[in-house]
Design goal:
By secondary structure, this protein is an alpha+beta fold. The chain is 29% helix and 35% strand. Strands 2-3-1-4 form a four-stranded antiparallel β-sheet, with helices on one face.
Length: 96
C-alpha cells in the first residue's frame, strides 16, 4: 500500500487543544499511521505533527486525515500531504 508524508503545524496557542484531543487522535490513527510524532519547538513543546501513513491513494489519505480528531478540533494552522517512500532504513510494520 502506498505511503504518504503529512505535516501539520498547530495554530498559535493551541497546546491545550492538542493535549485534550490527543488520546482520541492516537486511537484514531493507530490503524493507518506507520510512524509519527510531534514537531517540537526550541523549548521542546509540541508545535505540530509529522506522520507517515498508509492509504490506497492520495484522496483516501486526505479523507482519513480530515476525520482525525486533531483536524476536527481545528488544531492545525497549515498542513502538507505528499506521497512518500522509504529509501534508507526500514519502517516498522511496512512491507511495501
Amino acid at each position: 500500500m502506498p505511503l504518504f508524508h503529512f505535516v501539520g503545524i498547530d495554530r498559535p496557542d493551541h497546546l491545550a487543544v492538542r493535549m485534550s484531543v490527543r488520546p482520541d487522535h492516537l486511537e484514531y490513527v493507530k490503524d493507518f499511521v506507520r510512524l509519527g510524532g510531534p514537531l517540537l519547538d526550541e523549548h521542546g513543546q509540541p508545535m505540530g505533527s509529522v506522520m507517515i501513513l498508509e492509504a490506497d491513494n492520495l484522496e483516501t489519505a486526505k479523507v482519513k486525515l480530515s476525520q482525525d480528531p486533531y483536524a476536527k478540533a481545528g488544531l492545525f494552522d497549515s498542513t502538507w500531504l505528499r506521497p512518500w517512500r522509504v529509501a534508507i532504513g526500514s519502517l516498522p510494520g511496512y512491507e511495501g
